[in-house]
Amino acid sequence: MTGWFTDLLPPVAFTGSPLDRADSLRRDEAAMVAVRRDPAARWLVLDDLRPVVDGDALRWFARDAVPADAPSVFLGLADGAPRFAVAATGLGTAGDPRGVAAALAAGPTRGDAAIYAHARSLLDWHARHGFCATCAAPTRVAKAGYERICDACGAHHFPRTDPVVIMLALLDANGEELALVGRQPRFPRRFLSALAGFVEPGESLEEAVRRELFEEAGIVTADVRYVASQPWPFPSQLMIGCLARATGTGALTIDGEELEEARWVSKSEVRAALAGAGDWIAPPPLAIARTLLATWVNERHADNPEPLP
Fold this sequence. Notes:
Distance between the termini: 20 Å
Strand content: 25-35%
Helix content: 10-25%
Number of helices: 7
CATH superfamily of the largest domain: Nucleoside Triphosphate Pyrophosphohydrolase
CATH topology of the largest domain: Nucleoside Triphosphate Pyrophosphohydrolase
CATH class of the largest domain: Alpha Beta
Largest sheet: 6 strands, mixed
């Protein structure tokens, strides 16, 4: 892939939050008491981790409208006004998380999807980490929701994000570049996407890309290139999008467990799928897999600076 570069990437869902996370405030307990009492403070309500919305925008509540004892976290500042997320029920209609997230990402305020991802991941982590992983004693919330402390053994626990590589293997087939897409058994028929997998302990991102492509499809790759990343709040992963050059013939050996089918596709086939006119279904705009496909299709080269149609 020597000599290629990409134009500005298409927007990646769950990125672009307008909030200032205001880390210095989180560390100051007195300051956090003050911002909670700020008349401009607003709360985003998550009902069973589903956001309460107004159409395709998040709905924000004043302090006196949310239960005082409900679990909450500080999200940051919006033009100086404090913003929190709270786990509560009965304050409005909460939709299907992924469906609402897709509407938020496509709505007039793209940053709303990023705010929801931030809030959902934090509140979900707190709901599942009430006890110390070291000694099993109860933990308490600290740093405005970005830490839990065990007073029994002194352990400090922080919200976790699991790294996941998601990638397209690229193959030069008689002068035409092809990309590898596949379908997991849980995906619907005709749906094809980029291959993906969790980064394992003691492994670099490049090694994870090469291992996953080999394990799932029998493809040996080199020249791994980073493209973009995406926070994925179901529950809390960081999707790390990459491209990798296949070094062999492109013959596939599908593992049958992680993948049910896989195939090499051309740029014209990807364009058709992205337009909804192909013989397979492309990932939705919410997924970074679509960003990878769109980036590859619209790739520029140093000797051809005009974007491809």
